[in-house]
Amino acid sequence: MNELPATTVPTSAGIGRHNRLRFPAFPRELALAVVTLGTVIGCSVLYPASFANFSNFAAIVRNLAFEGILAIGMMLMLIGGSFDLSVGAMASMIGVITGALMKDLNWPVPLAVLAGLLTAISGGLLNGFIVAKVRVNALITTLGTMGIFQGLALLIGGPGITYLPESFSRFGQSQFLGLQAPVWVLVALAIIAHYAMAHTRFFRQFYYIGSNPKAAHLSGVNVERLQIVSFMVMGFLAGLAGILYASRIATATSTVGVGAELQAITAVILGGASLSGGRGTIWGAMIGVFFMGLMKNVLIIARFSSEWQGIVLGAVLVAAVALDSLMNRKRIG
Amino acid sequence: MRGVRKSFDGNEVLKGVDFDLRPGEVHALVGENGAGKSTLMNVLAGVHQPNAGTIEFDGRTGIVIPDEKSAQQLGISIVFQERSLFGHLSVAENIFAARQPNVLGHILRKELQTDARRSLERIKLDVDPGTPVEDLSPAQQQMVEVAKALSLEAKVIIFDEPTSSLTGKETQALFGVIRQLRSQGVGVIYISHRLEEIFQIADRVTVLKDGKWQGTTSVAETDTGDLVRRMVGRDLELRHNDAVAAHNPILLEVRGLSDLPSHSKALLKDVSFNARAGEIVGFAGLAGAGRTELALSIFGIRPRGGGEIYVSGRRVTVRSPAEAIAAGIGYAYEDRKEGGLFLDMSVAHNIAAAKLKRFGTWWLSEGRQSAVAAELQESLRIACRNTSQSVQSLSGGNQQKVVLAKWLLANPKVLIVDEPTRGVDVGAKAEVHNLLYRLSRGGAAVIVISSDLPEILAVSDRIYIMREGRITGELNRTEATEENVMRLASLTLPTPV
């Protein structure tokens, strides 16, 4: 079965055609897209008044911007075989630092935002350095820095910094086609990240690292450097998410990111990533985030108490991964 | 076992195979990868259920072996190709995994030690039962597996490729144990790609090809050529017979290469050698002689304490694989799954891995990757449906060809291949050799590291022999005989002053 006779001529099916990464026969992101579509249709029938209207859709995606931006970075991390638990705390901390710079120290808004983003990238560099160079496990490193970032956020901002300058909040509250600016930032970032992960040489290397870091290293890929870069990109995105959120509500809340890291990991795994690395797409991450936002919305409309959110999403996550594992086992056995 | 049939997803892997084993006999099972050897043994060990056929065991007919545990209870044990030991646990705990002597779940340490010692004595393995298994050599670990099988009162022990990571000496020690098992009335089934071993150890041999039985004969009535013919259905010519001009330019020269003295396992000492364009240079030696370490050092992975590397006469700085590749050196790692392949990725993406820049500095062209991969697939005869198939579904031989295709694409001046045919069947092995030959004759310097001595002798134009981190000799093709190489590989060196 394995050694086909030499006369087997290679089929030229894929050649010259657009032939993207093909993972399992029925990828999880596609399955999730179908389920999501089904849920939308089902809810439109069940709750025509409260669900199927534009303002409800706008509400769903508005709440997605924050987690969506984190999920883009988290997908990059998981494709490269790593992950970052400090992103929620990072978002809180950067929001608070940026807010404090412009409110308490009266820095001009653009300068405060720039300083915030640079701090975020440095935080990512710190994570990346410890993981890639010092070789401390990513779970432990980012669990530690999560505590540090969250603590700093509370130290600097107390519970939060309110009444941020109008010139700062104007951007986050501006609308285009009925959707707020942070949503459009998410859309733009998702498109850029999708092209980067699918088509650029630099970012495609993360699939190799995630699939087999040793083989990647032996094939000449600079694994350590790329790992550090991925943490820096993640840090930047987390900082940006924190700043945008602060801008939208004109307040830098010290605890805005609590639990966001797990939400982001849940979303990207639902969307097709694997904890063992090498798998996943940006559009999968986006569907994962949208699906989670959708479920929360549906639960509210169906008048379930908020406690049900965690229960339902947790069950969906475990069920999706279990199903995947069962299907994979069948294919191999 | 009579008329055993087994299909997976409509694919018939075993097409009515007969197999019998007498007590006190070593019965070898040979065939190419995918011939169905492992499936047949898995049926016997209860891992798979046959679709048809009967099993008779110890005078009882119509036996059903529903799972591994019942196979063990019947007295059938497998010593797997990939060792299934717990590295952190002691020898004793591995031998009696999950059935330690106990009182109400409390493990009796002392009994465990004595029982373990008794099993180890039976196979004359001199290690302390308290040693963690990860501190043992591969051969000793293999012996622990045997001890485990014996402690299960096995009447039948199946060895699946037991020698693929053993040195010649360790192999002989294993054979000693197998002979002893035979004399104790245990039936041994021996699976190996190394045909010469069959003639040393087996009494009878059964050949499988594409899931079909190709005859069982006494070893005395057959020879290698006959077995190979039955396995692949054609004759294979291994040895190439043309001399390389000895005045071709030197492509790789290594001078005085040593490990860092502070390295925890410092081994390499003052290694100097060269490889010319158009030649295949073999590196022979026992396991632990430092051949792989030398390759890792040249490839920029193992830190060097001293020494210089020249490619095409120019001195190069190599501190990482990326720099090595840029300097024109390629290295196919000894364990393709561990360090060569991206198993869940496609054939095309695997082939492109070491030369992504060729498909675009910024934007990668998938179309060009597929097209180049398809060309290599065809010229290397990689058996796959198309190049977007993932490599984990390919056989060992085809996976190895994918690794080689990756390096062909990177087009290095010097290609080091480490154990290029480990776990690869006879047919694919000859193709790999042929490929290395073509690559060298195309003007590259090919360095082959292999623990399979007949392979080194067959493919090399020149052979360096290593022992304990040094080069102890250099032989050209005419001087290179198994005896000469073994003498240099096991030579005792004068103590350095």
What does this structure look like?
In chain A, a hairpin with a 2-residue loop joins strand 2 and strand 3 (179-180). In chain A, helix 2 (54-79) packs antiparallel against helix 10, helix 4 packs antiparallel against helix 10 (223-249) and helix 12 crosses helix 13. Chain A has 333 residues and is mainly α. In chain A, the strands form two sheets. Chain A has a two-stranded antiparallel ribbon with strand order 1-4. Chain A has one domain (52-328): ABC transporter involved in vitamin B12 uptake, BtuC. Chain A has helices spanning 28-46, 54-79, 87-103, 109-133, 138-157, 166-173, 181-199, 201-211, 213-218, 223-249, 260-270, 282-301, 307-332; strands spanning 160-161, 175-176, 179-180, 252-253. Chain A starts with 27 loop residues before the first helix and ends with a helix. Chain A contains 13 helices and four strands. Chain B is an alpha/beta fold. Chain B has two domains: 2-232, P-loop containing nucleotide triphosphate hydrolases (Rossmann fold, 3-Layer(aba) Sandwich); 250-489, Rossmann fold, CATH 3.40.50.300. Helices cover 33% and strands 23% of the residues of chain B. Chain B is built from 17 helices and 21 strands. Chain B has helices at residues 37-44, 68-74, 91-95, 109-122, 138-151, 168-183, 195-201, 224-232, 291-298, 321-327, 336-339, 347-352, 366-379, 396-410, 426-441, 453-459, 482-489, and strands at residues 2-8, 11-17, 26-30, 52-54, 76-79, 102-103, 106-107, 156-160, 187-191, 204-209, 212-218, 250-259, 271-276, 280-285, 304-311, 314-316, 329-332, 414-418, 445-449, 462-467, 470-476. In chain B, the strands form five sheets. A six-stranded mixed beta sheet of chain B has the order 5-8-9-3-10-11, sandwiched between helices. Chain B has a six-stranded mixed beta sheet with strand order 17-18-19-14-20-21, sandwiched between helices. Chain B is globular, with a radius of gyration of 24 Å. The model of chain B is unreliable at 235-239 and 493-497 (pLDDT under 50). Chains A and B meet through helix 8 and helix 9 of A and helix 10, helix 13 and helix 14 of B.
